[in-house]
Amino acid sequence: MNTHKSNADLFLTISVWLTGFDEVELQGTGMVDTYFQTIITKNTASCIDHFFQAVQTVLAEGGGDEEKTNALISRLLFPTSCYNNLAQNIINMWYNGAWMPDVNAPNANIAQVSNISPDAYVKSLVWPASETHPPGAKQPGYGSWAVPPVQISK
After folding, report:
1. Which residues have CB under 8 Å from 83's CB, separation 6+?
2. Counting Cβ atoms within 10 Å, is residue 8 exposed (0-12), middle (13-18) or buried (19+)?
3. Rounded to an integer, what distance in angstroms lies between the CA atom of residue 72 and that of residue 131?
4. CB count, 10 Å around CB of 150?
């Protein structure tokens, strides 16, 4: 079994739970591989292995039950002392297209925040979540100001 592929699949699955977007929406951004490679390069192999072991536990014990799985995520993945804030960074990557420093590091500061790629900004989930487009990219088109915004209901 290819562990790297297995971890890539686990990354997508836990991203669904962490973001609230489904797999198709996340894959539609075109950022799944980029974000997966980012977590691989920004963390030690040991951190990644332990994180994905915990993800497997969360998914197995949660069994797809939303309340149980969310409680397990909070308990096993979210403490800031765990996995260099990897769960929080996965959320930041998807919503903001940025990698945040480990907040527990004694020298952590805002200068350590890095944009993952130009596409990450454009494809960030913050835009569909707020029902808008990214300024400077994906403009709505000429004359769109004359048409009332589409209301998205969930």
Report:
1. 43, 47, 50, 51, 54, 77
2. middle
3. 30
4. 6
91-118 mean pLDDT: 81
pLDDT, one tens digit per residue, over 37-93 is 999 999 999 999 999 999 999 999 999 999 999 999 999 999 877 788 899 999 999
Contacts of 122-129 with C-beta under 8 Å, sequence gap 24+, read 122/97, 123/29, 123/30, 123/31, 123/97, 124/94, 124/95, 124/96, 124/97, 125/19, 125/21, 125/29, 125/94, 125/95, 126/95, 126/96, 128/21, 128/25, 129/95
- 8 A C-beta contact, residue 90 and residue 97: no
The residue assigned the tokens 């909070």 is 74
Q: Is 75 helix (H, G, I), strand (E, B) or coil?
A: helix
Tokens of 58: 């969360």
Q: Is 142 helix (H, G, I), strand (E, B) or coil?
A: coil
Whole-angstrom Cα distance, residue 131 to residue 71? 28
Q: Which of 30, 40, 38 is CA-nearest to residue 124? A: 30
